[in-house]
Structure formats: C-alpha cells, structure tokens
Specification:
It comes from Flagellimonas pacifica. Pfam families: Acetyltransf_1. One of its GO terms (cellular component) is ribosome. Keywords: Acyltransferase, Ribonucleoprotein, Ribosomal protein, Transferase. GO terms for molecular function: acyltransferase activity, transferring groups other than amino-acyl groups. The chain is an alpha+beta fold. It has one domain: Gcn5-related N-acetyltransferase (GNAT) (Aminopeptidase). The protein contains four helices and five strands, in the order E-H-H-E-E-E-H-E-H. It has a five-stranded mixed sheet with strand order 1-2-3-4-5, sandwiched between helices. Helix 1 packs across helix 2. It is globular, with a radius of gyration of 16 Å. The N and C termini lie far apart (38 Å). 21% of the residues are buried.
C-alpha cells in the first residue's frame, strides 16, 4: 500500500470514494456534485487529499482543510474526511492515512489536526489508539443557516 498526495488529475479516482463517504453520512449519492465540489477545492487550492493506493486501485482517502488559531498564532488542519472502502477496513489503511496526515502536519510545523466524528463511529477507538485526544474542555457549537438544507 502506498499513501500519496492526490492532485486534480486523481479526481476520477477520488470521486467514487468521496461519494461513498457522503452516503455513509446519509447523503444522497451524487457523483456530479461530488466531482464539482472536489474540482473547486483543488482549483482554489483549498484542500489536501491523501490517497491510499494498492496496485493502482484506491483504497481510501483523507481530506484536510487549513484553518488558524488566533490564540496560538498557528495554522492547523481540520481532518474533515476519512474514508476506507469497506473491504479494506481494519487492515491498516485508515491508520496509515491518519499517520500520513500527522507526519505532513509536522513537516509543515502546523499546530496539529482537529477532527470531529459521529458519537457512534467505531473509528473513535482508532483515533484514541493513535494519540488523538477527545476534547472534554470545550463545547462545540454550530449555527445552521435555515436557508440551506
């Protein structure tokens, strides 16, 4: 297995994974919308995607977005998406993607990585095993624009 930085030329490899990731989170499958969303992120240089590959076949991906901490005056990444195709789960793919993201963050001297996940997501055990700490000090709030579904 190889973990590599994806580029816009990898779009057609990523779209089915990204669509499956969205379906996992109860969204309707929509390859065209997924393709457009990813194409815009690449075009605007707004994301970093790492792709897990084996024998030229994609096994999974993780997508990072940059944000900033005003308090520490440092950049950090939001690990927004992590997905491994079902037949390769529990085989080290997710762990390799997470570790690659951590290494990348260290190379750039970023403050760290943040992620959020569903309370019932079994990947929590993996995160904790890899030294991610569950935030128990802060509440996270989200305002939802009523004009957007």
């Amino acid at each position: 297995m190889e973990i590599r930085n994806a580029t816009s030329s990898d779009l057609e490899l990523i779209v089915p994974l990204f669509d499956a990731y969205r379906v996992f989170y109860d969204q309707e499958s929509n390859f065209d919308a997924a393709r457009l969303f990813l194409k815009e992120r690449f075009s605007n240089n707004e994301n970093v995607i790492f792709l897990a590959m084996k024998d030229d076949a994609p096994l999974g991906f993780t997508q990072l977005y940059t944000t900033f901490s005003s308090v520490s005056l440092k950049s950090f990444y939001i690990l927004n998406d992590l997905f491994v195709i079902p037949e390769f789960r529990k085989k080290g793919v997710g762990e390799a993607l997470l570790n690659h993201a951590k290494q990348y963050c260290q190379e750039l001297n970023y403050k760290g990585l943040a992620l959020e996940t569903g309370m019932d997501n079994p990947a929590q055990k993996l995160y904790e095993r890899l030294e991610w700490e569950k935030d128990t000090d802060y509440f996270h709030y989200f305002w939802k624009n009523p004009a957007i579904n």
